[in-house]
Sequence to fold (404 residues):
Amino acid sequence: MAAIKPEQNLDDALTLIQKGAYEEGERLLGEIIQDDASGNEVRLAALGHRGYMRMGLGRFAEALADYEEVCRLQPDDSASRSIKARLLADNGNARDAIIEAAEVLRSNPKDRMAMATIRKAQGMLGLDKYVEEGEGGRRALDIPEVPRNRVIQALEEDPNSSFPTSIHPELGRLIYTIVRAIKPTLVVETGSFIGYSSLCILQALEDNDAGHLHCFDLFCEVSDEPGAITNYTSPILGRRKTLGELARGHIEEAGLSHRVTMHAGDSSTKIREYFQQNPAKVQLAFIDGDHTIEGALKDWFAVEKLLEDDGLVILHDTIAEVCGWRGPRYLLQELGEKAATQYQWVNFPTFDKLGLAVIQKRQPIPSPRFKPSFFELLADQMFVMGFWSGSRELRNQIMKRLRS
Fold:
């Protein structure tokens, strides 16, 4: 009497399972898996079917064991790896589920099960803040609640902390998203003020589980003069003597001190001093310190030497007519006219009208030294004086002269 072929046993096992005879079908699949006469292809099929059946019955641990063996024997099978990722999530291992699903999506970006697994695992880790419950059930949020940090939230909600004292929360989210996307290992910031933009960068680095930020600022004393931009009381810390104490305190309260080094003093000078002693390449810089032409150029040339190929520099306050500063816009114009082969940039007309630009390094050669004329520097000082004196008429006259 001829022996029954493993392929026939496999068909019989599947027929039993389809009829609901799960125990008998599972027993037969087990025999196929253990049978030395079963070829590798049949054994893999039996493992996969048994694992899928166990998953359907809610026996996730046993199902995961089957699919781990399938993936060990056939590591390039993205469909099996996708199921394995789902089973990792079903077994409560959210982080490994995300890693496995992400690997599947690298080779098969349209794999729906892998995408669904990542969403499920994010929910298990408390990262699914893209929907909320309401009277009408679950609905998509217009703006993702990121970065999620109680200190960031408190600063955003406090009218004395948010725009225009700090960058607007929407720009904070944009910077957070950029850091999350490019995953830099080293970031430089000039102009930390009370630490809000620093917190957005740091939270992104923390969520990336990698990276360090160096903040450079004068961190001047807090003013008691009514209306002064440094006359500030924190909703978290209360009153402090210096902006440095406020920035450090906010970062400590947010639990992000381990990802930052703060340098007090002139930013361009301190950047050169630190990186001469600690050579390193920077993948991202946020320049938001001295916005005069001279100050913006000094920060730019200090950072440019450190910037990695394809690295990014973010500039804030790039629309001079609104923000009252000409430095960032002047830098963009000079890059466009004299360094277009080395750098490319885009200037976003943000809804707050202040502007945000992103510059990318294209070639591993430095840009030429931009030397503003005496007229440019004089006009820059007149512009600042006119802006801060509150004389709109003088500001408009200066802008008209500059455009001519």
